[in-house]
Design goal:
With 319 residues, the chain is mainly α. The protein contains 16 helices and two strands. It has a two-stranded antiparallel sheet. The protein starts with a helix and ends in a 9-residue tail after the last helix.
Protein backbone atom coordinates (compact mmCIF):
# COMPACT_ATOMS: atom_id res chain seq x y z
CA UNK A 1 0.00 0.00 0.00
CA UNK A 2 2.91 2.36 0.64
CA UNK A 3 4.21 1.77 -2.87
CA UNK A 4 0.75 2.47 -4.28
CA UNK A 5 0.77 5.77 -2.43
CA UNK A 6 4.26 6.53 -3.74
CA UNK A 7 3.02 5.87 -7.28
CA UNK A 8 0.12 8.30 -6.77
CA UNK A 9 2.37 11.18 -5.66
CA UNK A 10 3.23 12.54 -9.16
CA UNK A 11 -0.45 12.60 -10.11
CA UNK A 12 -1.40 14.26 -6.82
CA UNK A 13 1.24 16.96 -7.26
CA UNK A 14 0.24 17.74 -10.84
CA UNK A 15 -3.46 17.72 -9.90
CA UNK A 16 -2.68 20.21 -7.15
CA UNK A 17 -0.73 22.38 -9.59
CA UNK A 18 -3.54 22.54 -12.12
CA UNK A 19 -6.63 22.33 -9.90
CA UNK A 20 -5.42 24.06 -6.76
CA UNK A 21 -4.69 23.24 -3.14
CA UNK A 22 -8.23 21.91 -2.73
CA UNK A 23 -6.99 18.56 -4.04
CA UNK A 24 -4.57 18.21 -1.12
CA UNK A 25 -7.17 19.43 1.35
CA UNK A 26 -9.64 16.78 0.18
CA UNK A 27 -6.93 14.09 0.30
CA UNK A 28 -6.22 14.96 3.93
CA UNK A 29 -9.91 15.17 4.84
CA UNK A 30 -10.69 11.87 3.13
CA UNK A 31 -7.84 10.06 4.92
CA UNK A 32 -8.93 11.42 8.32
CA UNK A 33 -12.58 10.52 7.68
CA UNK A 34 -11.64 7.03 6.45
CA UNK A 35 -9.43 6.19 9.44
CA UNK A 36 -11.98 7.43 11.98
CA UNK A 37 -14.88 5.58 10.35
CA UNK A 38 -12.79 2.44 9.92
CA UNK A 39 -11.95 2.47 13.64
CA UNK A 40 -15.58 3.03 14.65
CA UNK A 41 -16.82 0.16 12.47
CA UNK A 42 -14.13 -2.17 13.81
CA UNK A 43 -15.16 -1.31 17.36
CA UNK A 44 -18.79 -2.12 16.52
CA UNK A 45 -17.70 -5.38 14.90
CA UNK A 46 -15.53 -6.16 17.94
CA UNK A 47 -12.41 -6.61 15.84
CA UNK A 48 -8.82 -5.50 16.38
CA UNK A 49 -8.29 -1.92 15.25
CA UNK A 50 -4.56 -1.41 14.81
CA UNK A 51 -3.81 -4.13 12.20
CA UNK A 52 -6.61 -2.91 9.92
CA UNK A 53 -5.92 0.81 10.41
CA UNK A 54 -2.22 0.43 9.68
CA UNK A 55 -2.49 -1.82 6.60
CA UNK A 56 -2.92 1.24 4.36
CA UNK A 57 -6.01 0.09 2.49
CA UNK A 58 -8.29 2.74 3.99
CA UNK A 59 -5.75 5.44 3.11
CA UNK A 60 -5.51 4.28 -0.51
CA UNK A 61 -9.32 4.18 -0.77
CA UNK A 62 -9.54 7.71 0.65
CA UNK A 63 -6.89 9.10 -1.71
CA UNK A 64 -8.47 7.51 -4.79
CA UNK A 65 -11.85 8.93 -3.81
CA UNK A 66 -10.40 12.39 -3.20
CA UNK A 67 -8.71 12.41 -6.61
CA UNK A 68 -12.03 11.82 -8.38
CA UNK A 69 -13.99 14.72 -6.88
CA UNK A 70 -13.73 18.42 -7.67
CA UNK A 71 -11.36 20.47 -5.45
CA UNK A 72 -14.31 22.80 -4.76
CA UNK A 73 -16.53 20.03 -3.37
CA UNK A 74 -17.89 20.83 0.13
CA UNK A 75 -16.33 18.86 2.98
CA UNK A 76 -19.59 17.16 3.92
CA UNK A 77 -19.88 15.62 0.45
CA UNK A 78 -16.42 14.14 0.92
CA UNK A 79 -17.45 12.80 4.33
CA UNK A 80 -20.61 11.24 2.88
CA UNK A 81 -18.71 9.54 0.08
CA UNK A 82 -16.04 8.14 2.40
CA UNK A 83 -18.70 6.96 4.85
CA UNK A 84 -20.46 5.03 2.09
CA UNK A 85 -17.16 3.63 0.80
CA UNK A 86 -15.88 2.43 4.18
CA UNK A 87 -19.06 1.47 6.02
CA UNK A 88 -21.27 0.14 3.20
CA UNK A 89 -19.04 -0.86 0.27
CA UNK A 90 -16.30 -2.36 2.46
CA UNK A 91 -17.44 -3.46 5.92
CA UNK A 92 -21.06 -4.26 5.16
CA UNK A 93 -19.75 -7.06 2.94
CA UNK A 94 -17.31 -8.36 5.54
CA UNK A 95 -14.32 -6.04 5.33
CA UNK A 96 -11.07 -6.20 3.42
CA UNK A 97 -11.01 -8.91 0.75
CA UNK A 98 -14.75 -9.58 0.91
CA UNK A 99 -15.95 -6.43 -0.83
CA UNK A 100 -17.34 -7.21 -4.32
CA UNK A 101 -17.25 -3.54 -5.38
CA UNK A 102 -14.37 -1.09 -5.36
CA UNK A 103 -15.06 1.06 -2.26
CA UNK A 104 -13.64 4.30 -3.68
CA UNK A 105 -15.77 4.07 -6.83
CA UNK A 106 -18.85 3.04 -4.86
CA UNK A 107 -18.47 6.11 -2.66
CA UNK A 108 -17.87 8.35 -5.67
CA UNK A 109 -20.95 7.12 -7.54
CA UNK A 110 -23.07 7.50 -4.39
CA UNK A 111 -22.22 11.20 -3.99
CA UNK A 112 -22.30 11.81 -7.77
CA UNK A 113 -25.91 10.61 -7.89
CA UNK A 114 -26.86 12.26 -4.59
CA UNK A 115 -25.17 15.67 -4.95
CA UNK A 116 -24.63 16.34 -8.68
CA UNK A 117 -24.61 20.14 -8.32
CA UNK A 118 -21.93 20.17 -5.61
CA UNK A 119 -19.81 17.76 -7.69
CA UNK A 120 -20.05 19.75 -10.93
CA UNK A 121 -17.74 22.69 -10.17
CA UNK A 122 -14.30 22.11 -11.71
CA UNK A 123 -11.64 24.80 -12.29
CA UNK A 124 -11.67 26.28 -15.80
CA UNK A 125 -8.17 25.34 -16.99
CA UNK A 126 -8.51 27.36 -20.18
CA UNK A 127 -7.38 30.38 -18.15
CA UNK A 128 -6.09 28.76 -14.99
CA UNK A 129 -2.91 30.89 -14.86
CA UNK A 130 -4.96 34.06 -14.45
CA UNK A 131 -7.72 32.65 -12.26
CA UNK A 132 -5.96 30.57 -9.63
CA UNK A 133 -7.38 30.97 -6.13
CA UNK A 134 -5.29 31.44 -3.02
CA UNK A 135 -4.88 28.68 -0.44
CA UNK A 136 -7.29 30.35 1.94
CA UNK A 137 -9.89 30.91 -0.78
CA UNK A 138 -9.79 27.19 -1.59
CA UNK A 139 -10.15 26.25 2.07
CA UNK A 140 -13.00 28.73 2.52
CA UNK A 141 -14.89 27.23 -0.44
CA UNK A 142 -14.54 23.68 0.92
CA UNK A 143 -15.65 24.52 4.46
CA UNK A 144 -18.09 27.39 3.81
CA UNK A 145 -19.93 26.17 0.75
CA UNK A 146 -19.97 27.17 -2.91
CA UNK A 147 -20.23 30.98 -3.42
CA UNK A 148 -22.04 32.35 -6.45
CA UNK A 149 -18.82 34.03 -7.61
CA UNK A 150 -17.30 30.60 -8.14
CA UNK A 151 -19.13 30.33 -11.47
CA UNK A 152 -16.73 32.91 -12.88
CA UNK A 153 -13.70 30.63 -12.56
CA UNK A 154 -15.27 27.20 -13.02
CA UNK A 155 -16.39 25.45 -16.16
CA UNK A 156 -16.96 22.15 -17.85
CA UNK A 157 -14.21 19.56 -17.91
CA UNK A 158 -12.84 18.67 -21.38
CA UNK A 159 -14.93 15.48 -21.46
CA UNK A 160 -18.09 17.35 -20.45
CA UNK A 161 -17.39 20.16 -22.91
CA UNK A 162 -16.78 17.68 -25.73
CA UNK A 163 -20.06 15.89 -25.03
CA UNK A 164 -22.06 19.13 -24.81
CA UNK A 165 -20.57 20.61 -27.97
CA UNK A 166 -21.06 17.41 -29.95
CA UNK A 167 -24.68 17.45 -28.81
CA UNK A 168 -24.96 20.93 -30.34
CA UNK A 169 -23.71 19.52 -33.68
CA UNK A 170 -20.24 21.06 -33.42
CA UNK A 171 -17.33 19.24 -35.05
CA UNK A 172 -14.43 17.71 -33.12
CA UNK A 173 -11.86 19.89 -34.92
CA UNK A 174 -13.80 23.02 -33.95
CA UNK A 175 -14.19 21.88 -30.35
CA UNK A 176 -10.48 21.06 -29.93
CA UNK A 177 -9.51 24.56 -31.05
CA UNK A 178 -10.74 25.82 -27.67
CA UNK A 179 -8.06 26.75 -25.09
CA UNK A 180 -9.63 24.08 -22.87
CA UNK A 181 -7.73 21.46 -24.88
CA UNK A 182 -4.02 20.72 -25.02
CA UNK A 183 -1.80 18.85 -27.48
CA UNK A 184 -3.48 15.44 -27.28
CA UNK A 185 -5.98 15.70 -24.43
CA UNK A 186 -7.63 18.14 -22.09
CA UNK A 187 -5.38 20.99 -21.00
CA UNK A 188 -3.66 19.92 -17.78
CA UNK A 189 -5.49 16.59 -17.77
CA UNK A 190 -3.06 15.10 -20.29
CA UNK A 191 -0.08 15.69 -18.01
CA UNK A 192 -1.91 14.36 -14.97
CA UNK A 193 -2.75 11.23 -16.99
CA UNK A 194 0.93 10.83 -17.94
CA UNK A 195 1.83 11.06 -14.24
CA UNK A 196 -0.60 8.25 -13.42
CA UNK A 197 0.83 6.24 -16.33
CA UNK A 198 4.32 6.65 -14.89
CA UNK A 199 3.04 5.62 -11.45
CA UNK A 200 1.36 2.57 -12.95
CA UNK A 201 4.57 1.49 -14.70
CA UNK A 202 6.35 1.87 -11.35
CA UNK A 203 3.84 -0.52 -9.76
CA UNK A 204 4.24 -3.06 -12.55
CA UNK A 205 8.04 -2.96 -12.34
CA UNK A 206 7.85 -3.48 -8.57
CA UNK A 207 5.36 -6.35 -9.07
CA UNK A 208 2.68 -4.63 -6.98
CA UNK A 209 0.19 -5.07 -9.82
CA UNK A 210 0.26 -7.26 -12.92
CA UNK A 211 0.32 -5.81 -16.41
CA UNK A 212 -2.64 -7.67 -17.91
CA UNK A 213 -5.61 -5.66 -16.63
CA UNK A 214 -4.08 -2.19 -17.30
CA UNK A 215 -3.10 -3.30 -20.80
CA UNK A 216 -6.57 -4.64 -21.59
CA UNK A 217 -8.31 -1.54 -20.20
CA UNK A 218 -6.10 0.92 -22.08
CA UNK A 219 -5.94 -1.24 -25.20
CA UNK A 220 -9.70 -1.69 -25.49
CA UNK A 221 -10.38 2.03 -25.04
CA UNK A 222 -7.68 2.84 -27.60
CA UNK A 223 -8.90 0.36 -30.21
CA UNK A 224 -12.61 1.12 -29.97
CA UNK A 225 -12.05 4.90 -29.98
CA UNK A 226 -9.63 4.51 -32.90
CA UNK A 227 -12.26 2.52 -34.81
CA UNK A 228 -15.03 5.09 -34.34
CA UNK A 229 -12.66 7.99 -35.01
CA UNK A 230 -11.74 6.26 -38.29
CA UNK A 231 -15.44 6.10 -39.19
CA UNK A 232 -15.95 9.83 -38.62
CA UNK A 233 -13.18 12.07 -37.27
CA UNK A 234 -15.55 15.00 -36.75
CA UNK A 235 -18.08 13.10 -34.61
CA UNK A 236 -15.86 10.83 -32.53
CA UNK A 237 -12.82 12.27 -30.67
CA UNK A 238 -9.40 10.70 -31.35
CA UNK A 239 -8.06 7.77 -29.33
CA UNK A 240 -5.38 9.78 -27.52
CA UNK A 241 -8.05 12.18 -26.27
CA UNK A 242 -9.84 9.31 -24.54
CA UNK A 243 -6.62 7.91 -23.06
CA UNK A 244 -5.24 11.16 -21.70
CA UNK A 245 -8.39 12.97 -20.59
CA UNK A 246 -10.49 12.16 -17.56
CA UNK A 247 -9.76 9.19 -15.32
CA UNK A 248 -8.58 6.60 -17.87
CA UNK A 249 -5.04 6.12 -16.55
CA UNK A 250 -6.09 6.34 -12.90
CA UNK A 251 -8.71 3.70 -13.63
CA UNK A 252 -6.42 1.35 -15.57
CA UNK A 253 -3.54 1.22 -13.08
CA UNK A 254 -4.98 2.08 -9.66
CA UNK A 255 -8.70 1.21 -9.65
CA UNK A 256 -9.32 -1.65 -12.08
CA UNK A 257 -6.41 -3.57 -10.53
CA UNK A 258 -8.00 -3.74 -7.08
CA UNK A 259 -7.33 -7.40 -6.14
CA UNK A 260 -10.50 -7.78 -4.07
CA UNK A 261 -12.96 -6.69 -6.76
CA UNK A 262 -11.24 -7.64 -10.04
CA UNK A 263 -11.03 -10.96 -11.83
CA UNK A 264 -8.25 -13.34 -10.80
CA UNK A 265 -8.25 -15.97 -13.57
CA UNK A 266 -6.04 -15.56 -16.68
CA UNK A 267 -8.97 -15.50 -19.13
CA UNK A 268 -11.09 -13.56 -16.66
CA UNK A 269 -8.57 -10.73 -16.58
CA UNK A 270 -8.93 -10.33 -20.33
CA UNK A 271 -12.73 -10.23 -20.15
CA UNK A 272 -12.67 -7.92 -17.12
CA UNK A 273 -10.15 -5.44 -18.56
CA UNK A 274 -11.77 -5.32 -22.00
CA UNK A 275 -15.20 -4.95 -20.38
CA UNK A 276 -14.06 -1.99 -18.29
CA UNK A 277 -12.58 -0.29 -21.35
CA UNK A 278 -15.66 -0.87 -23.50
CA UNK A 279 -18.06 0.37 -20.83
CA UNK A 280 -15.93 3.48 -20.27
CA UNK A 281 -16.15 4.33 -23.97
CA UNK A 282 -19.85 3.47 -24.28
CA UNK A 283 -20.82 5.58 -21.27
CA UNK A 284 -18.64 8.49 -22.40
CA UNK A 285 -20.02 8.44 -25.93
CA UNK A 286 -23.71 7.63 -25.63
CA UNK A 287 -24.81 8.23 -22.02
CA UNK A 288 -25.43 11.45 -20.12
CA UNK A 289 -22.28 11.00 -17.99
CA UNK A 290 -19.08 12.44 -19.51
CA UNK A 291 -16.50 10.06 -18.04
CA UNK A 292 -17.97 6.71 -17.04
CA UNK A 293 -14.95 5.21 -15.27
CA UNK A 294 -16.70 4.64 -11.95
CA UNK A 295 -19.80 3.11 -13.55
CA UNK A 296 -17.69 0.84 -15.78
CA UNK A 297 -15.72 -0.41 -12.77
CA UNK A 298 -18.84 -1.14 -10.71
CA UNK A 299 -20.58 -2.92 -13.60
CA UNK A 300 -17.59 -5.20 -14.17
CA UNK A 301 -17.14 -5.69 -10.39
CA UNK A 302 -20.65 -7.11 -10.33
CA UNK A 303 -19.80 -9.50 -13.17
CA UNK A 304 -16.53 -10.76 -11.67
CA UNK A 305 -18.04 -13.79 -9.83
CA UNK A 306 -19.69 -14.94 -13.06
CA UNK A 307 -16.52 -14.33 -15.07
CA UNK A 308 -14.31 -16.19 -12.61
CA UNK A 309 -16.75 -19.10 -12.40
CA UNK A 310 -16.72 -19.75 -16.15
CA UNK A 311 -13.01 -19.01 -16.70
CA UNK A 312 -11.61 -21.01 -13.77
CA UNK A 313 -8.61 -23.02 -14.99
CA UNK A 314 -8.81 -26.77 -14.42
CA UNK A 315 -6.85 -28.18 -11.49
CA UNK A 316 -4.14 -30.76 -12.21
CA UNK A 317 -5.83 -34.10 -12.86
CA UNK A 318 -9.35 -32.62 -13.13
CA UNK A 319 -11.57 -34.04 -15.89
Amino acid sequence: MRKVLYALIPGILLSTYYFGIGILVHCILAVVFALILEALVLILRQQMIRPVITDGTAIVTAILFALTISPYTPWWVSFTGIAFAVVVAKHLFGGLGNNPFNPAMAGYVFVLLSFPIQMAHWPDLSGFAEQKLTIWQNIDIIFSGLPIELDAITGATPLTNMKLELGLMAMVSEIESSPLYGSFGGKGWEWIALAYLAGGIFLIINKIIRWEIPLYVVGSIFLVSLFFNFIDTEVYPPALFHLFTGGTMLCAFFIATDPASSSTTPKGKIIYGVGVGLFVYIIRTWSSYPDGVAFAILIMNGLVPLIDYYTRPKALGEK
